[in-house]
Amino acid sequence: MGKTWEYMMADPQLRWIGPEKGVIHIASGAVNNAVWDMYARSRRKPLWKLVVDFTPEELVASAAFRYISDAITKEEALAMLKEREAGKKEREEKVRELGYPAYVTSAGWLGYTDEKVARLTKEAVAAGFNHFKMKVGADQANDLRRAKIIRSIIDDPQYLPADIPARDPSAEALRGKNAGPTGAVLMIDANQVWDVPQAIEYVKGLEEVKPWFIEEPTAPDDILGHAAIRKALKPHGIGVATGEHAHNRMVFKQLLQAEAIDVVQIDSCRLAGVSEVLSVLLMAAKFGVPVCPHAGGVGLCEYVIHLSLIDYIAVSGTMERNVLEFVDHLHEHFVTPCSINKHGRYNVPTNPDEGYSIEMHKASIAEFEWPHGSYWVGAQAAKSQA
Ligand SMILES: [Mg+2]
């Protein structure tokens, strides 16, 4: 699979117009993901299981190593994977039983009324979650008010489900996350709105609501900018996360080398498929930075559970500090949708025919495929009548 990836990405003529950036990289990722999906189906395994059953040699041969050997060599990756071999079976059993830890973004979108934020937060607590993310950046006073509403609910034991005890905020899994008295963690996400000095000042102003990290504080390509923000926020106990717009493994390499981030947020469709994701998982494990994939869009949750399982079982060997994004949105369009257990954790996909879990229902494609789907044709007809 590594050779297939190299064949697609290293053609000298093609490199004039990408890949490694822009829409051509995303398109290359779609092809790479489709090949992986077919590979897994042909072996009658969900994708994660195909990869964790690889030998360390097979896994290394499947990853994209071009341009990253200054951060990790194939030999180093191999040695690391061999070290993790012994515990693989046990970890697979553990995650099948417990599920993979998740967090919710659904409660804290900008533009929701305070009542809606409060209601959605209570629902998320009742569903077993203990990591919560809200959007910030439009107005600091407004952000503070909404964050205080969220904290007042997640820190209050009365809202916890009867059968789930409060987590111990001093537990190792919550170290450095600014967990409140019930072990709840708040994260904030700015979606790239600030310049570097502005990001620092704005986020300092949110210190009292104790976020674990600020996500995407500035331009996603600005590696040294992220490093400066992280350095400035460190005395305030706030970390930095990014990656949903980091468009190739070299951006992640530099973010790690520059000690610019506390959390690696890979995107399954922006990187050029599973092969490139594997190389980022390997680098993150070497640098000891947890991977918490981005999944705020249609079908992304279906993909990323596979990647986090690969990370836990075969690569980093740990899930205790990781949380995988979950958005309860549009899963009904997928043949094998992901699911969450009552402890707010992803269930492990087990259908031997689901591959990478990304097949959409034929009816959804017939309705929404641009521009000939019935939804768009109908919208056109309504427009011309108006
Ligand atoms: Mg985000």
From TrEMBL:
Cofactors (names): Mg(2+)
Top-level taxon in the UniProt lineage: Eukaryota
Keywords: Magnesium, Metal-binding
Domain Mandelate racemase/muconate lactonizing enzyme C-terminal as annotated: residue spans: 114-236
Record SUPFAM superfamilies: Enolase C-terminal domain-like, Enolase N-terminal domain-like
One Pfam entry name: MR_MLE_C
GO molecular function ontology, one term from the record: magnesium ion binding
Spans through the membrane: none
A biological process from GO: carbohydrate catabolic process
InterPro entries reported for this sequence: Enolase-like_C_sf, Enolase-like_N, Enolase_C-like, Mandel_Rmase/mucon_lact_enz_CS, Mandelate_racemase_C, RHMD-like
Keyword RNA-binding appears in the UniProt entry: no
Keyword set includes DNA damage: no
The protein's name: Mandelate racemase/muconate lactonizing enzyme C-terminal domain-containing protein
